[in-house]
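Hi everyone, sorry if this is the wrong subforum. Our group has a chain we'd like a structural model of before ordering constructs, and none of us has done structure prediction before. Sequence below.
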Amino acid sequence: MKRKLRHVAISGNIGSGKTELTARLARHYGWTPLYESVDKNPYLRDFYYDMGRWAFHLQVYFLNTRFRQVKQIEQSDGTVVQDRTIYEDAHIFAHNLHSTGLMSERDYASYLDLYRSMIDMTPPPDLLIYLKADIPKLVANIQKRGRDFENAMSLEYLRNLNQRYEEWIGSYDLGKVLTIDVNDLDFVERVEDFAVVAGKIDLELYNLFNQ
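Answer:
Right subforum, don't worry. Here is the predicted structure as tokens:
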């Protein structure tokens, strides 16, 4: 019996285009999109102005919402495309906050304990799509969407996150990974660029389910 595609996840740094690609893939393939909680996030704005004060609160909030999404995916009858994964919360963002001194040892230990309890009940996505973008591309996209609170984000913060992403994606072994370099792509404005992305995904899905 042919295996069913249940879960596709889009990963990448802030400003890499995850949310836009999630929306376009949902329309293109008829998948159900699950977005990262930004507009309704009670901590995100405060976090960018005082990261040390709100780091733990923000990461626990993201972790909880992402875990709920995983449970929703498990109960779905169709294919779900998810904007960012639960793994990134821990391996990228919480890890970076702790290593740069913005999350205390005590808070980080509590966070990891909670994460490990959740991850034991979290099946990995069938396909993980990593959007690789350099700092100029990230900054341009962040400026284009115009969220005022993101103006407080430093270039150093973005660089640190990019380094964490490269380390994490290089060691990810839970399933199939498709890396797409988006530095020279604009799949929002150029139909031909989206076609390039969709073509890469089509090939991966064919290989994944026709072996």
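For your construct planning: The longest helix spans residues 51-75. The chain has one domain: 7-209.
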